[in-house]
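Hi both,

Apologies for the delay on this - the queue was longer than expected. I finally got the zinc ion-bound model through. Below you'll find the protein sequence and the ligand SMILES exactly as submitted, and right after that the structure tokens for the full complex including the ligand.
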Amino acid sequence: MTDAAPPTPATPPGSCPRCDAQGLEAGYLVDTNGSGRFDMQWATGEPREALFGGVKASRDAWSVAGLRCTGCGRLELFATTPTTPR
Ligand SMILES: [Zn+2]
């Protein structure tokens, strides 16, 4: 590890924080229950139950990007973009 500042959501790391490999591969999470691509979001606070089940959508949510280390397989997730204009 270096003394560099921690990455911000807009600047994912250039190397793996676990094994220091340089090969971080961009990708996305897949819903294996059969509905295809799973667009993951990160939201602030605690989840709130929706009226008809599930979780109520948050007004403060961010799109999530995933990077996979080609050296050790570690996944790093980053909240990169607000889903609503700020
Ligand atoms: Zn690694």
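Main takeaway for now: DSSP finds no helices and six strands in the chain.

I'll put the files on the shared drive as well.

H.
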